[in-house]
Design goal:
InterPro entries: Ig_E-set, MoCF_OxRdtse_dimer, Mopterin_OxRdtase_euk, OxRdtase_Mopterin-bd_dom, OxRdtase_Mopterin-bd_sf, TAT_signal
Organism: Parapedobacter indicus
Keywords: Metal-binding, Molybdenum, Oxidoreductase
CATH superfamily of the largest domain: Oxidoreductase, molybdopterin-binding domain
Number of strands: 24
Domain Oxidoreductase molybdopterin-binding: 91-260
Helix content: under 10%
CATH class of the largest domain: Alpha Beta
Structural class: mainly beta
Strand content: 25-35%
Strand order of the largest sheet: 5-4-13-8-9
CATH topology of the largest domain: Sulfite Oxidase, Chain A, domain 2
Shape: globular
Largest sheet: 5 strands, mixed
CATH architecture of the largest domain: Alpha-Beta Complex
Number of domains: 3
Protein name: Sulfite dehydrogenase (Cytochrome) subunit SorA apoprotein
Bound molecules: ligand MTE, molybdenum atom
Length: 412
């Protein structure tokens, strides 16, 4: 028995109402439901249209990532975008784009305001930016001892083109008080416990990041309506920071006079120890022991060829991929075929806009037949490069920006 049942084991009226709102329609013959029987979850978690090569880590909540070679496009197509859900998305049929609203509230707004999506579109100028959204736990599977959480390989990252309006334009319309320090988002996803009162995740960023030009309230991705799993119909998108700050199914932004304190802002969630710790060491989850992850570290991917490529006609190979560096730009990318003893500088393009990933390419000549690994390493505008192997271990396994590598066999 759970919260849905009364003492005699029958469904409570309030539970029926809650379940009806979750499935987006009336629960028929609810009065006939036998004791201790809960309606089967009609909370559809199937994802339409994703590339069959995507790797599903879990399906409830849905978490899936792209193998590196699927991420070859400069602008990630929707069917190759990773999905990271902490709860269950709202039921598709319950989402009405024309009735959906965004409320701006909190201690630090002059007056609370609510806008419909069409009001947002009419009142504010739309902008499109390509933004890197990378899960803070991307690369977690590379930590040893293993850190708890989804064992992401390298594919919990995408750089899509998001269209929406600037959060700063809406906040200017609402009016901020001088004491505004942070924003926090609220989305309409459903807690795994199915308790409608529980908030799945509510994170945010300091007001300075919130007011950047590229921080958008978006309704479209790659020119289409945002699909259900990526936050339909409205989503906050903030490039360069852990993607957990980009709230999906967005209905409210609160402007706070304190560091936002929603679920997954404290403890070891999206936070790392302030002082380096031994791999595997327990760290007491106090406020002082951890800091909130902000800009993501410099990183790169080899997206072509696919690992395992065999060269049979000649010993030269064109390789390419992307590099990104949180709030910073990537200034140099290097590749190595000898485990980092020597490096070859790659060609590197400028980002399409701030916070977009950059494309790199290189032509590699192999000295003789054999098995090789190609490693890639990016350097950011502050001169910081990726570590070749595991960076600073942390309890939740965030921020693994170790070099990406692929295998190549030359059999000319
Ligand atoms: N409402 C809501 N927003 C959310 C999440 C969530 O579970 N609920 N997950 C966050 C996390 S941890 C990540 S990494 C990104 C993933 O975005 P994507 O699924 O569109 O790739 O969404 C973020 N926004
Ligand atoms: Mo994430």
């Amino acid at each position: 028995m759970n919260d849905y049942h009364n003492r005699r084991g029958f469904l409570k009226k309030s539970a029926i109402t809650t379940l009806a709102s979750l499935v987006g329609t009336k629960i028929m013959f609810a009065e006939n439901i036998p004791a201790r029987v809960t309606p089967l979850p009609l909370l559809s978690d199937s994802v339409d249209g994703k590339d069959p090569e995507m790797t599903v880590l879990s399906d409830r909540p849905m978490n899936m990532e792209a193998p590196a070679h699927l991420l070859d496009d400069p602008v990630t197509p929707i069917n190759k975008m990773f999905i990271r859900n902490n709860g269950l998305p709202p039921v598709k049929e319950s989402i009405d784009r024309s009735a959906w609203t965004l409320t701006i509230d909190g201690e630090s707004v002059k007056q609370k305001r609510t806008y419909t999506i069409s009001e947002l579109k009419q009142r504010f100028k739309p902008h499109t930016y390509q933004l890197v959204l990378e899960c803070g736990g991307n690369g977690r599977s590379g930590y040893y001892p293993p850190a708890s959480g989804n064992q992401w390989s390298q594919g919990a990252v995408h750089c899509a083109a998001w269209t929406g309006i600037r959060l700063k334009d809406i906040l200017a319309d609402v009016g901020l008080k001088d004491n505004a320090v942070y924003i926090g988002y609220y989305g309409k996803d459903i807690h795994l416990s199915r308790d409608a009162k529980k908030v799945v995740i509510s994170r945010g960023v300091p007001i300075k990041k919130a007011l950047e030009d590229e921080t958008l309230i978006a309704w479209a991705v790659n020119g289409d309506d945002i699909p259900l799993f990526h936050g339909a119909p409205l989503r906050l998108v903030i490039g360069g920071w852990p993607a957990s700050v980009s709230g999906k199914w967005l209905h409210t932004i609160s402007v706070r006079n304190i560091v936002h304190d929603g679920p997954k802002m404290g403890g070891s969630s999206y936070r790392v120890p302030v002082i380096p710790v031994q791999p595997g060491e327990k760290v007491e989850e106090t406020e002082e022991n951890f800091r909130i992850i902000e800009s993501m570290p410099v990183k790169s991917l080899i997206t072509h060829p696919k690992s395992g490529a065999v060269l049979s006609s000649n010993r030269s190979l064109s390789v390419r991929g992307h590099a990104w560096a949180g709030d910073l730009e990537v200034t140099e990318v290097n590749v190595s075929i000898d485990y980092g003893c020597t490096w070859q500088k790659a060609n590197l393009s400028a980002p399409k806009n701030r916070l977009a990933w950059q494309q790199w390419s290189a032509k590699i000549d192999f000295p003789q037949n054999g098995y090789y690994e190609i490693w890639v390493k990016a350097t950011d505008s502050k001169g910081v490069s990726q570590p070749m192997v595991m960076p600073q271990w942390n309890p939740k396994g965030y921020l693994n920006n170790a070099c990406h590598r692929i295998a190549v066999k030359v059999v000319v």
